[in-house]
């Protein structure tokens, strides 16, 4: 009779001796942790992120004409597909002057898309667009846009990306511009700004 083959177990780690094992010398052994008793009279400190002064609950006082709109990569592509002029459609949506802002990482994403998206690149290089420099590494725009609107509450984010929308909805006081029925719409914009609610 031959030797029976055992099925090799995957992801099995080598057994290591515990640092509390008696077989180890005293100096190599791990010390038992001694719990410190909490002083009930001591003042408890906890770190709470500072709330921005521009927000009055959900009402953002920093938002007002001229609106600064952070544009995402897919928003430009969908605008071209819907045959919409970016700046004019923004003004039609908000009834005020709009300054589209484009970050370096969004520009990098459009450049990476290649020859197929050359029209989007030409639109992004429009002199009416305000260029915002990025200090982070890489060209992943979503994290950059989320971080930017968390720090500065003076932007409206223009995007069609569902994942990015979901992340921005968690940040209070940041409206989202999106495309539906061949026109721009705005989400979560207070009526007091003179912008329509759809």
Automatic annotation (TrEMBL):
Classification via Pfam families: Fcf1
Gene3D superfamilies: 5'-nuclease
SUPFAM superfamilies cross-referenced by the UniProt entry: PIN domain-like
A cellular component annotation (GO) from this entry: small-subunit processome
Keyword set, alphabetical order: Nucleus, Ribosome biogenesis, rRNA processing
UniProt cross-references to InterPro entries, sorted A to Z: Fcf1/UTP23 (IPR006984), Fcf1_PIN (IPR037503), PIN-like_dom_sf (IPR029060), PIN_dom (IPR002716)
Compartment list: Nucleus, Nucleolus
Broad class of the protein's primary localization: nucleus
The keyword Plastid is assigned to this record: no
Domain PIN: 67-166
Assembly mode: Part of the small subunit (SSU) processome, composed of more than 70 proteins and the RNA chaperone small nucleolar RNA (snoRNA) U3.
Family that this chain belongs to: Belongs to the UTP23/FCF1 family. FCF1 subfamily.
Protein name as it appears in the record: rRNA-processing protein FCF1 homolog
Organism: Malurus elegans
């Amino acid at each position: 009779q031959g030797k029976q083959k055992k099925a090799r177990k995957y992801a099995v780690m080598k057994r290591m001796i515990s640092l509390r094992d008696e077989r180890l010398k005293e100096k190599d052994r791990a010390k038992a942790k001694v719990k410190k008793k909490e002083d009930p009279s001591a003042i408890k400190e906890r770190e709470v992120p500072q709330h921005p002064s521009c927000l009055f609950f959900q009402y953002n006082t920093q938002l007002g004409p001229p609106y600064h709109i952070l544009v995402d990569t897919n928003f430009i592509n969908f605008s071209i597909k819907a045959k919409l002029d970016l700046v004019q459609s923004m003004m039609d949506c908000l009834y005020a002057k709009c300054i589209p802002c484009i970050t370096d990482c969004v520009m990098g994403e459009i450049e990476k898309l290649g020859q197929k998206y050359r029209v989007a690149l030409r639109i992004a290089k429009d002199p009416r667009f305000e260029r915002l420099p990025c200090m982070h590494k890489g060209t992943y725009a979503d994290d950059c846009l989320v971080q930017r609107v968390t720090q500065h509450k003076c932007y409206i984010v223009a995007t069609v990306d569902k994942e990015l929308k979901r992340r921005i909805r968690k940040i209070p006081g940041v409206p989202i511009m999106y495309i539906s029925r061949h026109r721009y719409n705005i989400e979560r914009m207070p009526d007091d700004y003179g912008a329509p609610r759809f």
